[in-house]
Amino acid sequence: MFSVIIPLYNKAPYIQRALDSVLNQSFKDYEIIVVNDGSTDGGEEIVSKVYGDKVKLIHQNNQGVSAARNTGITVAHFDYIAFLDADDSWHPDYLLFVSTVIKRNRDVGIIGCHYDPYQLEINPVLNYFSLDQYFKRAKRNVGFFTSATVIKKVFFDTNPGFDPQLKLGEDIDVWLRASLFFGDGIYIQNTLVFYGQEDDYRATQKNHHIENSLIFKIINPDYYSSAIKDSDCTESEFINFRDAWVYMSLYQYYPLDSNLDSIQDMLKQMQSRYMLVRACYQLPFFTLQWFFRNKNFSNLFRNYMKFCFRYIYR
Question: What gap in Å lies between CA 254 and CA 51, rounded to an integer?
Fold first, then answer.
């Protein structure tokens, strides 16, 4: 039923925890595909020696996490793709609960689950809900997280997978396009996924060029039209979501001087809505750059935007 895809790049200290969490699943109808993306720390040797033929291990030169996931998808045999990062892990009933949701909701194409960096539920009882009007909800929180998301494989048979050009937001890109393709998904409220934070080498801690981000891609008018299929989200509703999501993410790109022209062009393309947030972005670039380079100030601004989108622009 599930093809579990785990990209591996220099995560030797954590890969056994991830694999053990899959092999300890109470639901057993799955295959495990580990894509070694040019690791140099011996993690691939651990997989080979400890797990043998329990895991399908694929080797490729380092191409990035998106290419690794895409490689796994191309060799997957089952109808549903379950993603797991090498430094995260699952509750033993994770796949059981997802399979139960699918059996009760045959048309669902994307399923998310609650995750936590500290502890998982003990003796959970399945609790889930439909993400009705997903793109209105997503203004407040996209909801999906890589190690806690399952997607019907047919999406990848007919749509591009993870975009290797994106250095930030490549996972969100897939969740959004899958939601436009399938329609509203389902979210499991039980905390069944452990989000490992031991590895400090994370993309979110770097400064990125905006051209390599989902922001630069999603602002393209063709984004909606190329992805929409079964969702009842109108183009106007999607643009409302898009602008809110861009505002919530844009501040992260101010620290790089090279992003100046792209940020200004992007703000011109966006409609004059959400003025309580948009007005902040009208301040001079270098004033905002100084502001957003300070972690405390940028967190304060993010909290302000969360308040606006949760309570004012609902």
Answer: 45
Q: Give the range of the structural domain holding residue 268, as residue numbers without chain letter.
A: 207-312
- Binned average pLDDT, 10 residues per bin, the chain of 314 residues: 98 97 98 97 96 97 97 97 97 98 97 94 96 94 95 96 94 98 98 82 65 93 95 95 94 93 89 90 93 93 94 89
CATH number of the structural domain spanning residue 106: 3.90.550.10
DSSP string, 207-218: ---GGGBHHHHH
How many Cβ atoms are within 10 Å of 203's Cβ, its own excluded?
13
The three-state secondary structure class of 269 is: helix
* 157 and 92 housed in the same domain: yes
Distances, alpha carbon 152 to alpha carbons 91, 99, 109, 288, in Å = 21, 12, 5, 42
Neighbours of 253 (CB within 10 A): 24
Instruction: Please give the model's pTM, rounded to 2 decimal places.
Output: 0.94
Amino acid identity for residue 224 in this structure: Y
| One domain for residues 32 and 123 | yes
Last residue of a domain, one of 203, 226, 259: 203
